[in-house]
Amino acid sequence: MKIFIDTSAIIAYYNTDDRFHRDASRVMKELSEGRIPLTRLYVSDYVFDEATTFMKLVLGNPGLAERVGDAFLASPFTSILRVDEEVFDDAWRRFKTSAGTSFTDCTSFALMDKHGIGAAFTYDGHFTVSGFKTL
Question: pTM for the full model?
C-alpha cells in the first residue's frame, strides 16, 4: 500500500510532547514491522517544508529539523513528491472550493490523486473528508 505521510504525523512522531505522539509511535512501529502493509511512503516538498520549519522555529530545535529532513532525503523507503505547475493549479482549484482546508493540504490531495495514493498517515481530518483512508 502506498501511504502519504502528513505534517501532523511527522510532528506527532518526533515531538514527544505532542498529544498524538504515542499513537504515531505505534503506527510507525506497525509500519516498520510490516503489520501495516506498505509498499512506499510519500511526502511532498510542501509537507517537508512545513514539518522541518515547525521543528526548527516552533519547537526551537534546528538539530531535529535537520536530522528529520536528512532522514527523509536519504530514506530508501520514502519518495518526496514535488509540486509542479499541474499539481499547483489543481491544488488552487481545490483550495478555492474547500472550506477550512489549507493550501498545503490541497497540494497533498492533488499529489495523492495524481500518484494513486489512497491512504495517509495523518491526524488531520481533512484527509478523511476528502475521501482518503487514514491511519
Answer: 0.93
pLDDT confidence of residue 34: 87
Compute the CA torsion angle 53, 134, 19, 64 (nearest 10 deg).
-30
Total domains in the fold of the chain:
1
CATH of the domain at 23: 3.40.50.1010
| All three cell numbers of 54 | 515547525
Give me the chain's average pLDDT, please: 95
Q: In this predicted model, what pLDDT tens digit does every residue of 84-102 receive, in sequence order?
A: 999 999 999 999 998 889 9
Range of the domain at 88: 2-134
- For 80, phi then psi, to 5°, come to -95, 120
Return the number of other C-beta atoms located less than 10 Å from residue 87's C-beta.
22
Q: Which residues of 94-120 are buried (b: 16+ CB within 10 A; e: fewer)?
A: bbeebeebeebbbbbbbbbbeeebebb
Residue 13 pLDDT level (bands cut at 50, 70, 90):
very high
